[in-house]
Amino acid sequence: MILTVEALTASVTLSDPNPVDGGWSTSVELGTSKSKAISQSQLEHIAPALKTLETAGKIAWSVAQDPALDMRAEEGTTQPLYVAGLDAATTAAAGGATLKIFGAGLLTNFTPATRVTGVTHFITYASKAGAPGNKITVAQVLGTGAIGVAVVGNAITVTLAVGGSTLTEVAAAVNAYPAAAALVIATVTGTGSTAAAALAVGYLIGGTGSTVGVKVGGKVCNITKLSDVEINVLVPALSPLVATNEAVVLVTVGPHTFFAGVLTLS
Fold first, then answer.
1. Residue 151: which H helix or E strand, with range?
2. pLDDT tens, residue by residue, 182-240
3. What does CATH list as the number for 70-110+210-266?
4. For position 197, what pLDDT does the model report?
5. Which of 16, 168, 208, 222 could tie 111 with a disulfide, CB 3.0–4.6 Å?
6. How far apart are CA 23 and CA 202, in angstroms?
7. What confidence tier does 168 reach under pLDDT thresholds 50, 70, 90?
């Protein structure tokens, strides 16, 4: 990433207070601007200082994708990868809120592996990884008790409740089971009250690229929606790890990291 800082009312010096990446600092003279490469962890460390100086009217700043790492540039196109902004300005530091991140080209060179359970009314299991998602299997089996989900490695098995389970119930059970939710997102198309059928073990297919991830305040978020223009995540509990009331939101697609904004915590 490239951080650009403009000194508006005074010269400023910024440095990483926790230089785990070997140290980072920059000085900007009054009335000038400077751009400098910065890592994800370095940005997280200095974000509070940036926001304080911005609030005081001393600087203006922005973060952009490093053109050298722009995957579209490798393909000879001109549209940049970027995150446009956040849907929520405030969320609880205790976590649990859904954060929506909007942009364009968010899944460039990334396609989730998928498996669809039917034609008209069905569940789509979409991986949270690209090519590695092709190693995930899903099965739906008939049961004799309550609906249940089990995960062994990359294998997800949904045991349908005795008497049957609806598509909505199956998708909700998968998305609520941490080990399964770490692998896939289950979504219903059609009428969710339709009964879910038994489904033999089968692999997800079509995945390309590596992984997508979102961090808020340095903590990994559970992704609940993935598309080229929108990513939804559940914000984890951030207190007491975030000393200030603000947290940096970063989106990673493979080796490429994007600054999505600073989230204000209530």
1. strand 148-152
2. 999 999 999 999 999 999 999 999 998 888 888 887 888 899 998 888 899 888 887 65
3. 2.60.40.10
4. 93
5. 208
6. 48
7. very high
| Identity of the residue numbered 188 | V
Q: What are the domain boundaries of the chain?
A: 1-64, 70-110+210-266, 114-203
CB neighbourhood size of 109 (10 A): 17
Q: What distance in Å separates the CA atoms of residue 46 and residue 15, rounded to the nearest whole number?
A: 7
Strands of the sheet containing 222-226, edge to edge, are 82-86, 98-104, 230-234, 222-226
Give the strand pairing for 33-37 and 59-64: unpaired
Report pTM. Answer: 0.71
Angle at 13 between CA 8 and CA 17, to 5 degrees: 130
Whole-Å CA distances, 244 to 49, 135, 240, 252, 264: 10, 41, 9, 23, 9
Instruction: Using alpha carbons, list the distances in angstroms from residue 97 to 59, 100, 140.
Output: 31, 10, 30
